[in-house]
Each structure stands twice: as structure tokens, then as C-alpha cells.
Amino acid sequence: MQDSNWDIASKLKNPRLKSGVFNELVAEYQKPLYYHIRRMVGNHHDADDVLQNTFLKVWKYADKFKGESAIYTWLYRIASNEALSHLNGREKHRSAGLEDYQHPSSEHREVTESEIERKLEKALLTLPPKQRQVFDLKYFSDLSYNEIAEITETSVGALKASYFHAVKKIELSLKVD
Amino acid sequence: MEPNKNNEAEYLKEISPSLFNEKVKLNPKPPAGYFESFAEKLNEKLPQQEETKVRKISVVNLRNLAIAASIAALVALIPFFTQDENLNTVQEDNTYAALAALDLDADDISEYVDLDLIIDEAIEADDFIDEYNTEFTDSEIVTFLMNEGVSEDLIINEYTENDSL
Fold first, then answer.
1. Do A170 and B45 touch (CB under 8 A)?
2. Given a cut of 80, is residue A99 above it in pLDDT?
3. Distance between CA atoms of A85 and B76, rounded to whole angstroms?
4. pLDDT tens digits for A37-75?
5. What is the pLDDT at residue B1?
6. How many CA atoms lie within 13 A of B92 on its CB side?
7. Whether B16 contacts chain A with CB within 8 A
8. Is the CB of residue A10 less than 8 Å from the CB of residue A67?
9. What is the pLDDT of residues B103-134, one digit of tens each?
10. How far apart are CA A173 and CA A125, in angstroms?
11. Interface probe with A: pick from B18, B36, B56, B57, most Cβ of A within 10 Å
12. Which residues are within 8 A (CB) of B16 and not within 5 positions of it... i.e. 6 or more apart?
């Protein structure tokens, strides 16, 4: 996608161009957003629901994107918030996704490439949702602290502290498992 | 900025060698064909939402238009219910009242009212005359009034008061 953020914003507001640019966004960002959401919620079924809701919101609120920030930070913000809402709703009924990881359905069972990846995925789910979000955006999505601050609407200092705590916890989980 | 970046990287390696000696990629794979069919599955949900939104807006606009048209029609009809005739009646009543104060009987008053209207017409004729730069002499005006049935005495009295003769 070569358009500037301003171009994307104006196209999203144009009824004739909205569909085309929306499909381009889906094609370009469905994978990175899926992986981010998937790491947040812990299983494919929930990740699929959250990803669809994310893009439905992108469509619904397309005219709200003003082009002042990068399109991907806007998309990540929607995806992250949808994942957090999903986790908060799920935690009201049961624990944070560990059950889904430990007992994946045979239909959606995924095979990780290495033991460390399996352990890491399990360790991620031990983090509180917001800390999990920060760790994922920094470590896996490789965003800068400023970009993450824009997505999460948190200060850079708070993000660094949260990230370092998450790293320590995961390291401890990896050693114990 | 570079020293801080290096310090952070070193610090992270120190606290978590598993994660930072060699970065771990974690992209759990979805079921086969998921990404290929995702856009289509998503688009099936989009048109319904969009149509609903458009339908809702058109209903609101039509309703507002109907209300605005009704108000405009009522406003347009107001002049038909105003009292031009009543105004004339009021004017006539005022004339009657004024003339009655002069102790004139009903027949005389009627004559004056008629004269009033005739004079109004004459005044309008004067305006007409002024507009077209044509002048009528006083005698022509008197002749006109007499032809309209106005009594000579009244004409003389009226014109004497106005110094028209």
C-alpha cells in the first residue's frame, strides 16, 4: 500500500473509493493483526471472531481516521482494544485463556515449530491482558515505545516498566516449564 | 539515544537470555486456507450493515422533508386567511364613526363613504397620472366625479377644504 496516511483517510471517507481501500487494508494487515490477536487471546476460534470484529469496526468508523497517525497504529489500536474487550468478557466467566491453550480442539489444533515457541505461547497467557498487549506489541510486532504509547494511550515510561516486568515473568515461566 | 538503546538491549539480554539472545518468532498458524477466505467471509457481513445505515438515513430525511413541506404550506396559506375585507370594513367603520361624530345622518354618511372610496380611486388615478406625466384639470376631475354620481354640493365642499379649486 503506497498511499500516504492522508490519502488513505480521504479514500476511506469517499463512498466510491472506500470499498477498494478497505479491501487493500484487509489484504495487507489481516496476517499481522491475526497473529497479534491470536497471541493475545490464545486460540484460533476467538482470534477469528476478534479479527472480524476489528475489521467491521474499521469499516464502520472509517470516516473517523484522520490521517494524523499511521494507519497501522490505528488498526492495531482497534485490534488490541477488541482483544482486550474479549479477554475481559471471558475472564468474567473463567480464567485467562489457559484452558483454551491446554485443551485445544482437534479442529483448530496448531503445531508450533519448536519447544521454545510452545512454551512461550503458554507463558504469554500467564500475563495480565494489558501487560500481554504491551509485550506482544513490543517484542513480536516490533513497534517503538512511541507507537505503542499511541495505541495504548499510555506513557512511554509506564510502557517500559510494564515491558520489563513482562520479560522477567516470561523468563521465569520458561525456566519453570 | 544510541547509548540508551544499547543499554536497554543489554539489560534485556541479561534478564531474559531465552528471549533476547536469539529473538523468538511466534506466529501460530491458523487452519489451512483461513487467510485466503477471510476477506470473502468478511465482505458477506459488510453490505447488510451498510444498507441498514443508508435506509435509516433516508427515512429520517423523508420525515423531516414532510414536516418542512407541511409547515411551508401552512405559512403559504396564511395570507388567504388574513382580513383584507375586514380591513376595508374596519376602514369603513372608522369613516362611519368619524362622520357620525359630525352629526350626519346615515344617508349622508353613505354618500361620504362612497365619496371617500371614489376619492381614493381618484388619488390612485393621480398617482397613475403622475407616473405617466399627464395632468388633469380640476374641472376634469369635478366632471369625473359628477359623472360618478357625486352631488355637486359635496364636491364643492370637499374641494373647498382641500383648496383644490
1. no
2. no
3. 56
4. 999 999 999 999 999 999 999 999 998 998 888 999 999
5. 43
6. 14
7. yes
8. yes
9. 556 565 555 555 455 455 545 555 554 554 45
10. 10
11. B18
12. A167, A168, A170, A171
Q: Does B12 touch chain A (CB under 8 A)?
A: yes
Give A118: exposed, middle or buried? Use CB within 10 Å, 0-12, 13-18, 19+. Answer: middle
Q: Which of A30, A124, A170 sits opposite B38 (nearest CB)?
A: A30
Q: How far apart are CA A122 and CA A145, in angstroms?
A: 25
Q: Are B1 and B9 a contacting pair, CB within 8 Å?
A: no
* Backbone Cα Rg of chain A: 17
Q: Which of B37, B38, B50, B57 to mutate to test the interface with A (most CBs of A within 10 A)?
A: B38
pLDDT at B159 over 60: no
- CA-based nearest residue to A131, from A34, A29, A39, A46: A39
Tell me the CA end-to-end span of chain A in Å, nearest whole number.
42
Hey, are the CB atoms on A112 and B28 less than 8 Å from each other? yes
CB contact under 8 A, B26 and A121: yes
Among B5, B26, B40, B48, most A C-beta atoms within 10 A, so best to mutate, is B26
